[in-house]
Amino acid sequence: MSRENVELVRALYPEPGTDIAALFRDEHTFAGMREALSSFLTDDFQSAAIFLGQTRTYAGLEGLRQNWLDWLEPWATYRTTIEELIDVGDRVVLLLRDHGRYEGMDAEVEIIAASICTVREGKLARWEDYADRAEALKAAGLSE
């Protein structure tokens, strides 16, 4: 099932160049995303933000949105691109390069990040976002 897991995660990820801040902040846009994603998540789906040794965990699709809204609070715009997808059995590691612009600033910030997605029975069961790529690779049992 590993190849299918990688393809599922790739299909659920926003296209490169998508402003994720706008995607999650706009109720109408998120309503369409909610409808599109709901059948791809397990009933007990969780998302988590792991940053500076702390973990915030959220339940369900609305929790995923809140997770992103919490992260996006200081950002005017935020884009993310998948650099690599790594098959780790029932988990998929996404190596990411994010670009964001803080409110009131012209310059963008680059973040070298990662996510770990856990797939169960063909659906996404957990999505973990890491601001530190090395921490994500260690959590997945890999090294950089």
Structural write-up:
With 144 residues, this protein is α+β, with helices and mostly antiparallel strands. It has a single domain, classed as Nuclear Transport Factor 2, Chain: A (Roll), CATH 3.10.450. Helices cover 33% and strands 44% of the residues. A six-stranded mixed β-sheet has the order 2-1-6-5-4-3, sandwiched between helices. The longest helix is centred in the middle third of the chain and has 13 residues, at 60-72. The chain is globular. The protein starts with a helix and ends in a 5-residue tail after the last helix. 22% of the residues are buried. The mean pLDDT is 93.
Mean pLDDT: 93
Radius of gyration: 15 Å
Strand count: 6
Compressed to H and E, one letter per element, the order equals HHHEEHEEEEH
Order of strands, main sheet, comes to 2-1-6-5-4-3
What's the CATH architecture? Roll
CATH secondary-structure class: Alpha Beta
Q: At the third CATH level, what is the topology name?
A: Nuclear Transport Factor 2, Chain: A
Main sheet summary: 6 strands, mixed
| Gap between N and C termini | 24 Å
Task: Determine the structural class based on helices, strands and strand pairing.
Answer: alpha+beta
- The general outline is globular
Beta-strand proportion: 35-45%
Range of helix content: 25-40%
Number of domains: 1
Counted by DSSP, the helix tally is 5
Q: What are the segments in which pLDDT stays under 50 over at least 5 consecutive residues? A: none
